[in-house]
Amino acid sequence: MTTSTTDNERSFTRNEGILLVVICIATILTRLPWISQGYGIDPDAWRVITSARHIAQTGEYIFSRPPGFPIHEYLVALAPVKISPLYSNGITALFSGVASLFFALILRYFRIKHYLLLTLAFALTPVVYVNSVNTMDYMLALAFILGSTYFVMIHRSFVAGIFLGLAIGSRITSGAMLLPLTLWVFLEERSSTSCRRFAIFSVTTLMIGSICYLPVVDRYGLDFLRFYDNIGYETVESLLAKISVHVWGASASLGFIALCCLVPFTFRDIREVLTQPLVKRGLALSSLSIALFTVAFFRLPHEAAYLIPVVPFVLLLLALLLSHHLLKYFCIALLLSSFFVNISRSGVTLSGPIIQDHLTRQSQIEETNKLMEAVTRLSEKSVIVVGGTLALIKILDDKHQNNHQYVYGIKDSTAFKQYIEQGFQVYFFNDMDRYNMLLYGVDLRKFGAQQLDVLEDK
Hints:
two-stranded antiparallel sheet, 21 helices, 6 strands, 4-stranded parallel beta sheet, single chain, 2 domains, disordered N terminus
């Protein structure tokens, strides 16, 4: 079991400092084989590139999607106009290394015996690994969240506030961490000192977070506080998949089931651990953080990646409760999860999530290129409904055919009729007819749209 100490700010030995640097570098190195293939499966990653190019070329801020992710968007905009995936994905990989470093420091603070092994397992958790090699903001926000958590623990309230403010600037939902970290401050000590720490931390957080969003408010006003609502709620099967295998992978999900079965046999040890004040504070911090981000996920369960902030706190909770042996076995299961067995809507494959993500990105780009090639051979003026593929086309299309238009969707019958009156033939890509019907209630086939089957155009 984990033991506590009153001297958690102990100095680092030279070897320990080297090991922490090595784990950070090792995390980044595990990302390098996967960062050159496009910007990611999620069209939002490609929207970031569109936003960053506009910022770089004009100096004018536009968000990639509401409510804006200014820290990430400006970082990517620092690249040359023709942004390379190596640069923008490399930023994400770099911050995943920073997140791993801070996670290791948090585990060390609690004196977790196998903290370096657990840090490596965190770095290779499927949802973390996959989202460390694309152009998304999840790992930036998580790195700042974990940095803020560590600095709160070592009583660096001002620095902690800066980090959480930057986390909010990276992803606005990171502001939820203000509550668990405030809880930590007041559980640690109830005095005028804790009130002072809270005031410095909270004011700094809100100030930095607000500064980050000044360009967003300047451009959009308070309209930036929009978000994508659900288009129909997920099925129970889909939700279970997202919170299990899509986050943890197949082998670690089985590991969770095994741990649940073993709880009755470790209950006496867990009760003993709960007598330690440091452990109780850690459990309170972890439990509240997990609860907040899980509730947010169930409100809008679009992506398993929304649960990324939950991952380090689940692992911390397990580290505080489990015996060294059980924790070690679970880490091994987690280390295997990214590389072996992937379960998705398309079925079960032996290659793991990180490999499947890479292959899907390749096929996604190839399919988009085939679509654009097919469109160039259309003789008549055309409108092509492409949904999220529009984000890829904006980056990959260098021909810009003026007689053809790509659109995300057609919102109503009036818009459809206007295209026809202007002499356009309407096509839709893949199953965008069903998606358009679900999103806008417009049946494209009913109004005469045709499917553009790119597989037949070779």
